[in-house]
Amino acid sequence: MGFEAWYTISVIIFIIAALASNRIGPDTVMLGGITLLLVVGILDPKSAAAGFADPSVLMIAALFVIATGLSQTGAMTMITSHVLGKPQTLSGAQFRMMVPVAAMSAVMNNTPIVAMYMPVVHDWARKLRISPSKLFIPLSFASIFGGACTLIGTSSNLAVNQLYLEYFQSNAQMLHDAFGIVEPSSARQFWAVAIVGLPCAIIGIPMVVYLSRWFLPVRVAPDQDFTQARQYAVEMLVEKASPIVDKTIEQADLRQLPGLYLVEIQRGDEVLPAVSPDVTLQAGDCLVFVGIVDSVVDLLKIRGLVPATTQASKIAANRGQRRIVEAVVSHGSPLVRQTVRQSQFRTRYNAAIIAVHRAGHRINKKIGDIVLKPGDTLLLMTHSGFVPAHRNSKDFYLVSTVDNAREVHYERAWVAIGIMALLVILLTMPLGLIVSKINQITGLSLPQRNMPPLAVGFLCASLMVYTRCCTGTAARNAINWQVLLVIGAALGIGRAMRDTGAAQGIADAFLSVTGSLNPYTQLFVFSIMVNIFCQLVTNKGAAVLMFPIAIAIAHNQHLNPEPFVITLMATAACSFMTPIGFPTNLMVYGPGGYRFSDYLRMGIPLTLLVAIISTIATPLAFPFVPTP
Question: Distance between alpha carbon 507 and the CA centroid of its chain, in Å?
Fold first, then answer.
């Protein structure tokens, strides 16, 4: 290897050390690495930027938008509420989440599964009072296990399969004569990797649950200490068509919101204090809650539960532009010493007061009858322009938007679900084959090709915005730019590893060391080597780089190449040891508050599991030498 190769390897070592230190953000580290390659000319500007324009990066951006549409319409909550349920233990929660995620990832690319589940799991963790860091790595790992079960589970499977088909076409006669191999059918291509992936998922999911007790510390504290938090008293009305009508308090999940207490129910002229969880809700009930602002926001997301004040529905703003805002009344405000009704608050500010906080005390009055005082903190439903318009107003000391507090558009939930179904159909169905059959039957000449995944992602993301499942502003804000920067930079660094010969040099060194080993040991070491490459150049890059090595090992030993090809496919699909080794690991890295070492502790045992199962299972299904 020359200077460029050794320099590139040095940059990789620097990146790994910087990430492991947890002192610098992953996007800063990766961009710094690609800068070091740029300044010495190993990467030209076009090559360095190519990773950011890679279809996989743009596809992830589209998936963030799709996930936002599902979240803002309540569609994802509708889909997952029965699946996730209300487990009593952390282990139960992890199992309830991981099993369906793995199953879904087997029939759909695992990246969108994680993108859609992340906001749901975050809210679910709050309700269960579990740290998100106990759930996000298991979420990513479950999707990885599922992706290793079928051809379409992850893009690296498709890449290896295509390389093998091209290799087979060039060597069909030799493979048939030496090992009796015939061209794999579509069904065999689809399920071959499951020989390793399925047992890995069956054993690996319980392993993750067990290991997380010891190796996955709490990195983000669960929301449990509410004693010092600012609390509001808020009245919510049960609408006539609400799905929670005729359900008990327990069944409606109104006792599962952390930091929130149901004080009483006002039913006509009757007041029900000390509400039992067995009380059945009726249309028109006014529920009085006391709780922190985040839990008040959760109330606003419950279908059929709306603020009791009639002023909220009169705000002059599109529903998609409504926001929840906190504002502190100043001493010089014209609101002081007036009731809310007298101040004509909605007319003056185009905002409705839905709750008032005053020095930690609940105000036992209707909103309209509360006499405002300096220092009162108002919880407002208003429009997106309220904060910039009143940030410097003398009427308020402080004005701030409440994060993630938007009205949920349940009436568009089925539209969002339809768009999600379209995404799954277009990504998984063999549309080219279907159109071909239609042409044969009808005599038409429709284009016989599958839609590229990026086109599918952009189409469905655009539909989410055009059908108003989410606004354009929400779609832009939903994209996690840190994740995209890290993945784009990683692809550029992987290109440098390939172009400088650093990757090939490492592979050659592997062959020189393992050439004298027996086939089973070679297969085991090869699996470990592929996994190490995944941490350096991403899983898809490692799959492409290591394919010729797999074929070379088999040829040198006069062995059937299929065990090495399937091992390569399964191992590249199962990259656990670092956040940069797999896109879903990167997606949960920041939100989970993880450290580089968390992935190592959890990932090393799972990497060994994949290597062991590959060594045992693939030669059983695809013998190294033909059976006499």
Answer: 33
Walk me through the domains of the chain, giving residue ranges and CATH numbers: 3-165+177-218+482-621 (no CATH), 231-401 (3.30.70.1450)
Strand partners, 371: 339
On the question of pLDDT at 193 being above 80, the answer is yes
Task: Report the phi/psi class of residue 593: left, alpha or beta, with left for phi > 0 and alpha for psi in -120 to 50.
Answer: left
Query: Is residue 530 within 8 Å of 546, Cβ to Cβ?
Result: yes
**DSSP letter string over 473-512?**
HHHHHHS-HHHHHHHHHHHHHHHHHHHTTHHHHHHHHHHH
Looking at residue 383, what is its pLDDT? 80
3-state secondary structure of 31: helix
- Bridge partners of 237, per DSSP, are 286, 306
Measure CA 351 to chain center: 34
pLDDT in tens, 512-566: 777 677 889 989 999 998 898 787 666 776 777 678 778 877 877 788 999 999 9
Token duo for residue 223? 């929301």
Dihedral sign of CA atoms 597, 598, 601, 607 in order: negative
| Tally of helices (H runs) and strands (E runs) in the chain | 26, 9
Q: Which amino acid is at 49?
A: A
Structure tokens at 177: 């004569």
Separation CA 210–CA 97 (nearest Å) = 15
Do the Cβ atoms of 196 and 148 come closer than 8 Å?
Answer: yes
Instruction: Mark out the alpha helices in 269-391 (DSSP H runs).
Output: 293-300, 340-343, 345-349, 386-390
C-beta of residue 574 within 8 angstroms of C-beta of residue 144: yes
pLDDT (tens digit, 9 = 90+) per residue, 427-448? 666 666 666 667 677 766 666 5
Q: Closest by alpha carbon to 9, among 558, 537, 628, 452?
A: 537
- Rounded CA-CA distance 42/48 in Å is 9
Instruction: Say how many CA atoms lie within 13 Å of 16 toward its Cβ.
Output: 17
List of residues 6+ apart from 511 with CB closer than 8 A = 549, 552, 553, 556
Q: What is the pLDDT of residues 249-292, one digit of tens each?
A: 888 878 767 777 788 888 888 888 878 888 889 888 888 888 77
Give the per-residue pLDDT at 453: 74
pTM over 0.70: no
